[in-house]
């Protein structure tokens, strides 16, 4: 204990008894100094400007009497240690004050110097210990309340006894009381039998070590948790209650699932690359044979035109095969600077044949010939997936798919980009669907009607070209897909995919094919359908 002078406030209505106490405090010990107030009000005023180490409080004052004296004093000055002083016949009154928080009590007529000094020093030490205990408890409570994981204590009947705020939020309730009223087996565990198995394990006195389970939120949705805990035992196989920690691992499980899907996609890519390699060899044979026939029938104009179409078709097929091999990481895309508007216009001549006959394509190019980094074949593939999705979203009724090309000027958004926007008037998507549309194998179609690879392919191709994709959609309001290509000379923010970087030397040509003359599908617009320029 410190050797500094101990300041003692005497709140006593009897002047003679106050002098007696002051004399006992002084004596031969110079470590005490005392101050006297004759009433509760005088003590209040003195304490406004002074801070004693301990208070000797008479429970019978002119303006306060009985235990109310202590309660009132405690309410106004909660952090001051108090020793109550009362007459010999009021020991019960003094004992009640101690139970209410007084550090000690002294009976008048039985107070000696040694007893008084001991009581004062003990009151100060006990008060300091209680203060430290409160601070420690407050720190522990703050640690529990601000923990990122759930902490709970539950009874044997299956109810929470206490929970921290993180667990309340995890379960989706408004306050702690709502959680305390839950039946854990019925309202929290998706599978009540799973809890029964855990309880049997705990009843034996064993700990839970990172056991996974599926829990239910207030809104009925489920999520995965990892439980760690222990039973607090009253005896062998006699648990008093259980306490544990809960970690929400839903996001981790989702990442693991995405990693597995990525592995599947990687395997698909490797398989596709192998198949593409074999097809490429077949294309080489076809093209070589066609070129030999071209030399042999040089005077037959119609046959020569057919052979030219065969060679052109093989070249287009070889371009797609090269793209597939790029997905298998065996060949990079040929990113170069191109006039994006012109590439899109050419691509739409091919893409428009994949949509429903009652759907119109409109095309607007406001890019003024702006050039950006892109692979024309990859752009065609991207538009094929996006436009086909737009057509399917609009069903079989009349509708329009609007494609526009422009340049972004928002320095805070995407500077130096050419933007291609594809808008439809389809059914639109909610937030949950938008969050998953680029996931491999995710599809809103019925099982067996789609692979879920279309928009995943779009995302992958745009990333490989150093671009990006954004989707705006609301249920019933249609969907707009924005494709962003970095303009020539702009700092690259996408992935460096390597490959050739060269200027565009030309664009894919279009024209009639042998199938046109044979009565097959035509590359020209169907009757009544608009051209891309409309």
Structural features, described:
The protein has 534 residues and is α/β, with parallel strands linked by helices. The protein has 16 helices and 19 strands. It has helices spanning 15-26, 40-47, 67-76, 91-99, 113-145, 165-171, 176-180, 184-188, 192-203, 250-296, 301-327, 340-351, 376-393, 431-434, 454-464, 514-517, and strands at residues 6-11, 32-37, 54-58, 60-61, 64-65, 82-86, 104-107, 150-154, 160-163, 208-216, 222-235, 238-248, 336-339, 359-365, 371-374, 399-407, 417-424, 468-473, 479-486. The strands form five sheets. The chain has a five-stranded parallel beta sheet with strand order 2-1-3-6-7, sandwiched between helices. Strands 9-8-12-11-10 form a five-stranded antiparallel beta sheet, sandwiched between helices. Strands 14-16-17-19-18 form a five-stranded mixed beta sheet, covered by helices on one side. A hairpin with a 2-residue loop joins strand 4 and strand 5. Helix 13 runs antiparallel to helix 15 (454-464).
Topology overview:
Elements: E1 6-11, H1 15-26, E2 32-37, H2 40-47, E3 54-58, E4 60-61, E5 64-65, H3 67-76, E6 82-86, H4 91-99, E7 104-107, H5 113-145, E8 150-154, E9 160-163, H6 165-171, H7 176-180, H8 184-188, H9 192-203, E10 208-216, E11 222-235, E12 238-248, H10 250-296, H11 301-327, E13 336-339, H12 340-351, E14 359-365, E15 371-374, H13 376-393, E16 399-407, E17 417-424, H14 431-434, H15 454-464, E18 468-473, E19 479-486, H16 514-517
Parallel strand pairs: 1-2, 1-3, 3-6, 6-7, 14-16
Antiparallel strand pairs: 4-5, 8-9, 8-12, 10-11, 11-12, 13-15, 16-17, 17-19, 18-19
């Amino acid at each position: 204990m410190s050797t500094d002078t101990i300041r003692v406030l005497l709140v006593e209505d009897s002047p003679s008894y106050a002098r007696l106490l002051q004399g006992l405090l002084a004596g031969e010990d110079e470590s005490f100094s005392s101050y006297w107030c004759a009433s509760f009000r005088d003590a209040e005023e003195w304490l406004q400007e002074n801070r004693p180490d301990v208070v000797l409080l008479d429970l019978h004052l002119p303006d306060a009497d009985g235990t109310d004296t202590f309660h009132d004093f405690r309410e106004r000055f909660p952090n001051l240690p108090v020793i109550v002083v009362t007459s010999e016949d009021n020991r019960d009154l003094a004992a009640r004050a101690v139970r209410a928080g007084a550090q000690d009590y002294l009976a008048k007529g039985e107070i000696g110097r040694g007893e008084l000094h001991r009581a004062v020093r003990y009151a100060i030490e006990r008060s300091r210990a209680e203060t430290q205990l409160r601070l420690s408890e407050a720190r522990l409570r703050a640690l529990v309340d601000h923990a990122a994981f759930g902490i709970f204590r539950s009874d044997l009947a299956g109810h929470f006894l206490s929970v921290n705020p993180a667990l309340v939020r995890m379960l989706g309730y408004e306050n702690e009381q709502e959680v305390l009223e839950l039946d854990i087996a019925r309202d929290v565990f998706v599978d009540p039998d799973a809890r029964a198995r855990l309880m049997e394990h705990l009843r034996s006195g064993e700990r839970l070590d990172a056991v996974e389970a599926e829990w239910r939120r207030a809104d009925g949705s489920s999520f995965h948790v990892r439980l760690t805990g222990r039973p607090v035992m009253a005896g062998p196989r006699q648990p008093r209650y259980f306490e544990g920690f809960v970690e929400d691992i839903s996001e981790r499980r989702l990442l693991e699932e995405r990693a597995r899907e990525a592995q599947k996609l990687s395997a698909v890519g490797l398989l596709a690359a192998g198949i593409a390699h074999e097809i490429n060899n077949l294309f080489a044979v076809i093209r070589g044979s066609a070129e030999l026939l071209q030399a042999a029938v040089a005077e037959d104009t119609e046959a020569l035109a057919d052979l030219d179409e065969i060679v052109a078709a093989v070249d287009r097929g070889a371009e797609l095969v090269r793209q597939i091999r790029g997905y298998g990481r065996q060949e990079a895309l040929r990113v170069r600077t191109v006039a994006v508007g012109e590439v899109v216009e050419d691509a739409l001549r091919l893409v428009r044949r994949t949509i429903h006959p009652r759907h119109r394509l409109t095309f607007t190019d406001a890019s003024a010939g702006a050039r950006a980094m892109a692979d024309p074949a990859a752009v065609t593939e991207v538009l094929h997936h996006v436009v086909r999705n737009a057509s399917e979203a609009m069903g079989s009724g009349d509708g329009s798919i609007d494609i526009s090309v422009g340049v972004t000027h928002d320095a805070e958004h995407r500077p130096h980009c050419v933007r291609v926007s594809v808008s439809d008037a389809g059914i639109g998507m909610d937030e949950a669907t938008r969050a998953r549309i680029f996931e491999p194998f995710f599809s809103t179609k019925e099982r067996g009607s789609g692979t879920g690879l279309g928009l995943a392919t779009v995302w992958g191709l745009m990333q490989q070209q150093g671009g990006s994709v954004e989707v705006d959609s609301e249920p019933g309001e249609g969907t707009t897909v924005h494709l962003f290509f970095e303009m020539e000379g702009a700092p690259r923010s996408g992935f460096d995919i390597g490959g050739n970087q060269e200027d565009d030397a030309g664009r894919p040509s279009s024209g009639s094919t042998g199938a046109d003359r044979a009565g097959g599908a035509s590359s020209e617009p169907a009757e009544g359908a608009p051209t891309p320029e409309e």
